[in-house]
Write a structure and sequence with these properties.
Layout: E1 6-7, H1 16-25, H2 29-32, E2 38-39, E3 45-46, H3 53-68, H4 72-76, E4 79-87, E5 92-94, H5 96-109, E6 112-123, E7 126-136, E8 142-154, E9 157-165
Parallel strand pairs: 4-9
Antiparallel strand pairs: 1-6, 2-3, 4-5, 6-7, 7-8, 8-9
Length: 186
């Protein structure tokens, strides 16, 4: 179903059991290394089988579940050693070691984090995803930001992640009910 938008589960942290199982799933590097097919820009296929959204998205799902659970090393295990993570707000491509410090800062700054209302579209080299990042500050204030990421995957690991987030565009999420991206209709 390449070319279709998929609305994924409403939350990586729907229950305590889910958090625990997610943290266990991402606890080691072997959990993130799963060979998936890769199509190069010239159309040559590397790998076997069909490209599936669940295969392409599973590594990012594990990464975000790890970040939601505060498991920085498990999140980093989903990045290749040469991975670059670029942010629109600083316009810099960060290596894996720099991301260790950034992910640790995220976890330390926001005792509760979640990534919800994910919508994903396959690309020849990975996928594009829209989601809402939610966080609770140490003072208890809840914030949310719409995010778009462009992800490249090779050999089951993230090799490039470009993140577009307007940090000044934070909004207060509703206290109850499912959180959806404001203004986006199915």
């Amino acid at each position: 179903m390449v070319g279709s938008w998929f609305k994924l589960g409403s939350s990586a942290r729907t229950s305590g059991d889910r958090i625990e199982s997610s943290a266990q799933e991402v606890s080691g590097l072997s959990d993130c290394i799963k060979p998936i097919p890769f199509i190069q820009r010239d159309g040559q296929r590397r790998g076997e089988g069909e490209i599936g959204m669940s295969d392409q998205g599973s590594v990012i799902d594990r990464m975000f579940a790890a970040l939601a659970a505060g498991e920085v090393e498990a999140a980093l295990a989903c990045l290749s050693d040469e991975a670059k993570v670029w942010h629109g707000f600083d316009r810099l491509a960060h290596d894996k070691e720099a991301m260790r410090a950034q992910y640790r800062g995220l976890v330390d700054s926001f005792p509760e984090r979640d990534f919800v209302d994910a919508r994903r579209q396959a690309t020849p080299t990975g996928f594009v995803q829209q989601h809402v990042m939610t966080a609770t500050t140490s003072s208890g204030q809840r914030k949310a930001w719409p995010v778009c990421i462009v992800v490249r995957i090779e050999n089951g690991l993230i090799t490039r992640l470009d993140e577009y987030i307007d940090r000044a565009g934070a909004f207060e999420p509703p206290a109850n009910g499912a959180l959806v991206t404001p203004g986006l209709d199915d």
